Amino acid sequence: MPQPPPNKICDLTTHDSSAPLSPRGFPQATLTLCAWQKWFLIGAVTALLLWAVFDYRSELLVVNFILTVFYLLTTLYRMLIIELALRKPREMSFTKAEISRPPNGKKWPKYMVILPMYKEGDVLPNLIRGLQKLDYPKDRLEIRLLIEEDDEETLAVADKLDLKPPFKVVRIPKSYPRTKPKACNVGIEDGDADYLVIYDAEDQTEPDQLKKAAHAFAKCPPNVACIQAKLGYYNPTFNLLTRCFTAEYATWFGLCLPGLDCLQAPIPLGGTSNHFRLNVLRQVGGWDEYNVTEDCDLGLRLFSQGWRTRILESTTWEQACPSVPYWIKQRSRWVKGYVQTYCIHTRDLLNFHRKLGFWNSLQFHLLIGGTFISQLVNPLYWIMTLLWLFVRPAGLDQFFPTSIFAMGSFCLFVGNFIFVYTSAIACVRRGVGELAKYSLLMPFYWMMMSIAAWKGFLQLFSNPHHWEKTKHFADPNATAKSS
Questions:
Q1: Is residue 299 in some structural domain?
Q2: What are the angstrom distances between the C-alpha of 188 and each of 151, 178, 191, 286, 342?
């Protein structure tokens, strides 16, 4: 197993905002676009404008054809990974008897738990109570609360709790950028552990998850660097938004990620319940502190360097955001990070594709690129569909010859039906079958996703590193009633 180099993961004093590389040498989100990407974008926009001046009809037809083909491919790919998840489940699972003793008959491995938080005083007591229930030997466990040094609210609550080992408060120096991945990198600079897991402030994990993950690592080959547990919501039925959000998570963690596991494809990690081999995490440079969807980037960076991720049949329960404005902020950050990640990993396009190979490169474009591109172009096609159904403006049909119309109709009718249907299946498999009927409303939820996508995309040009913090409510039911 490769060993991490001795230098530190992050240097809080030497970041150069014009440099595209981190102190560890991996591409970093300090810049969204490198020089050739900027010139390519300028050239493409210029060419499209000139083409529109001379023959806008042909241009619209070609652009519509390209977007429709790409949309069709992303739809078919999503269908493929869902079908594989249903037909060939690969999640790693363990019985209570198996995890009753250490893997390989030895001592339990040392585990480090990190919890980055900012202004989370309201939820901290519940968090501590949940972590105290972890079924793992306390002498092999260290739980680090990563709290910003100027977060007096959370620090005051932590002091009142009078925390004892395995808990440890780590004060994160006030420095730019003010992001979760920066705090995580500072939090793992020192310490001796075999494995590390990251949780969010509102998480309620299954007590035996660490033991399951330890057994999963022992069972996997050495090139498996990460074990991703599943995420669910403990407030799924509060309002319509939480119901749709729960259905989305049930599909993503219950079908999409297991399907990617079946294909042994690049897996964009969730932001919590990622279990890592700590030495590998340090070796690859930790998280990109400038990327606002740092988990997706880290999953791809691990894969491109030869490491693999497996999915664990264990759940961490989170709080589904019950407020539309806060949900929009959270989702816009995710989409902005997907665009950042896509641009970063395509800076050295040929070398990146050479590392991944044709099939994995194609999956990267369809999954990461396809996710945000589809969400951005969806409103355009919804508008054209409404115009076609109710107005029928003269000339619109010339942009939809038979081939384009057939592909678009498949995505609109067959694709949406399948995704609604599989969303209902995912709810039943996740144990929230009473939410299956709300899958019929998912197309409206996807419209909200496009609104958030455009917000995040436009923010790339004005404030690319701004962290739209997810709001955690101490009493989500009481708070959401006023949202």
A1: yes
A2: 20, 17, 7, 9, 26
Token pair, residue 38, equals 């900027």
Q: What is the pLDDT of residues 237-257, one digit of tens each?
A: 989 999 999 999 999 999 999
Structure tokens given for 134: 């972890």
Residues 6+ apart with CB under 8 A from 71: 374, 377, 381, 407, 408, 411
**Closest-CA residue to 273 (of 321, 317, 304, 229):** 229
Could you list the beta-strand ranges (E) of 151-281: 167-172, 195-198, 204-205, 224-233, 274-277
Give φ, ψ of 86 to 5 degrees. -75, -35
Rounded Cα–Cα distance for residues 467 and 316 (Å): 23
Calculate the alpha carbon distances from 342 to 134, 301, 347, 366, 436 in Å: 36, 11, 9, 11, 33
Q: Which residues contact 305 (CB under 8 A, 6 or more apart)?
A: 284
Give tens-digit pLDDT for 186-207: 999 988 999 999 999 888 999 9
Domain of residue 449, residue span: 20-92+220-483
What domain count does the chain have?
1
CA–CA dist 10, 222 (Å, integer): 26
Which residues have a Cβ under 8 Å from the Cβ of 54 and sit 6 or more positions away? none
CB 100 within 8 A of CB 137: no
Could you tell me if residue 69 is inside a domain? yes
Whole-angstrom CA distances from 80 to 250, 255, 295, 366 are 17, 10, 23, 12
| Rounded Cα gap, residues 15 and 17, in angstroms | 6
Q: Quick check: is 450 in a domain?
A: yes
Order of strands across the sheet that contains 141-148? 167-172, 141-148, 111-117, 195-198, 274-277, 224-233, 308-318, 204-205
Rounded CA gap, 392 and 404, in Å?
17
The overall pTM is greater than 0.70: yes
pLDDT value at 127 more than 50:
yes
83 found inside a domain: yes
The dihedral through the CA atoms of 367, 353, 37, 297 has a sign that is positive
Cα gap 276→224, rounded to integer Å: 9
H or E element, residue 399: none
Furthest C-alpha separation in the chain: 75
